[in-house]
Design brief:
The complex is a heterodimer of chains A (278) and B (96). Chain A has 278 residues and is mainly alpha-helical. Chain A is 68% helix and 0% strand. Chain A contains 16 helices and no strands. The longest helix of chain A has 21 residues. Chain B has 96 residues and is an all-alpha fold. In chain B, helix 2 runs antiparallel to helix 3. The longest helix of chain B has 23 residues. Chain B starts with 11 loop residues before the first helix and ends with a helix. The chains are: A mainly alpha (278), B mainly alpha (96). At the A-B interface, helix 14 and helix 16 of A face helix 2 and helix 3 of B.
């Protein structure tokens, strides 16, 4: 892969016009959050001005993913229960998931499953703010969506390579583009000024053992992705489970024996997902 | 018009193929209904498809260990389903 090709593909990926745009209210909210005197009510008020966005956020926070089905009635309540980082992640993901739900339904279902699984894993391990890990699970394959949107001609070549070689999407992406969706995740996280923990969770979910600053974030998403592939893979199709990095279990203090417990938690929540839609 | 021959199992894969063909409704002609315990079928299915899903990892001792753990777990869940009455059976008995 010539270096010039790689730069060209990256340039097309980051062409701002067609990228999912983040709600403008987010910039205003981020500024407020940086002021220690800002109250939760003030932040909630700003988000609530965008009624369409507020409705989407409330629908998401009341979904099975966050474990408060039907109980959160206001943005302020959501902020108090889930915290700003989670609400920010949800605001970002509503923009992205809507596109997925319409044009890439299988990817959407996988992303929602991964959000559920990530939350289950984080709770099982006893990690602080487990809902932040759900956000990472929700967005972990964002790069795949952007590649499909920005490089549709090359997406076709990627799909062909996956089918012909019976290989993983990540390997096919690297063969065709010179980079994978995990690298795209890193570029987007940087472009959107996402928290460093989320950035590393998204960019290192295939290589959690290489995550330097937030290895638990990367390991949770890695394990969640693996579990969803195991639970949702079809016998007839080209589905493959990714390699489960043993270091990821070690980082989380888990063993292979714990997989059953996590699957139990996940199955119980996943049964509620068919009734959830954006 | 007959689109699926006698003896074919009407599973999810076949239904999705029919949908792709633009067929939005089907009439099933059958004199036999096989009652399955839904939970058992799902866990059994999951155990059965692990070899396919792990096909790229054959020969890797670690992944074979993981697959073995998962298979044992799915089969255990399936066997637990055998000893509990299914929800469907209960509701059927109550005439729901």
């Amino acid at each position: 892969m010539a270096h010039s090709d790689l730069r060209l593909h990256k340039g097309r990926i980051l062409a701002i016009r067609d990228l999912p745009t983040l709600p403008s209210v987010l910039d205003e909210v981020v500024t407020l959050v940086e002021d220690p005197t800002t109250s939760t009510e003030q932040i909630a008020k700003i988000i609530s001005y965008d009624q369409v966005l507020s409705a989407k956020v409330l629908k998401m926070v009341n979904s099975p993913i966050y474990g408060f089905p039907g109980r959160i009635g206001s943005i302020h309540h959501a902020l108090v229960l889930l915290g700003f980082n989670v609400i920010r992640g949800i605001v970002i993901s509503t923009s992205v998931l809507e596109i997925m739900a319409h044009s890439m339904t299988r990817l959407w279902a996988h992303s929602v499953g991964c959000a559920l699984a990530a939350g289950c894993i984080a709770r099982r391990v006893g990690l602080k703010d487990p809902d932040e890990y759900s956000v990472a699970g929700l967005l972990h394959d964002l790069g795949k969506l952007v590649i499909a949107l920005q490089l549709p001609d090359l997406q076709a070549a990627i799909d062909e390579k996956i089918a012909q070689n019976d290989t993983y999407p990540l390997l096919a992406e690297k063969a065709v583009l010179g980079f994978g969706h995990d690298r795209v995740n890193a570029w987007l996280a940087n472009h959107w000024n996402l928290p460093p923990s989320l950035e590393e969770g998204l960019s290192h979910h295939h290589k959690p053992h290489l995550a330097r600053t937030f290895p638990k974030f990367a390991s949770v998403v890695h394990l969640a992705d693996f579990i969803v592939h195991v639970m949702d893979g079809k016998p007839e199709g080209k589905d493959l489970v990714p390699y489960l990095e043993p270091k990821a279990l070690e980082i989380l203090g888990l063993t292979s024996q714990d997989l059953g417990l996590i699957i139990e938690d996940f199955s119980a929540k996943h049964s509620l997902v068919p009734s959830f839609s954006l | 018009m007959i689109v699926v021959g006698q003896g074919c199992e009407l599973n999810e894969f076949l239904l999705s193929r029919l949908k792709e063909m633009g067929i939005d409704s089907v009439v099933v002609v059958s004199t036999e209904i096989v009652r399955q315990v839904p939970g058992q079928l799902i866990w059994n299915d999951r155990a059965a498809r692990l070899d396919h899903l792990f096909r790229k990892h054959s020969g890797d001792a670690w992944m074979e260990e993981i697959k073995s753990h998962l298979k044992n777990y799915f089969l255990l869940r399936s066997s637990i389903g055998e000893t509990r009455p299914s929800e469907g059976a209960e509701t059927a008995d109550k005439g729901v």
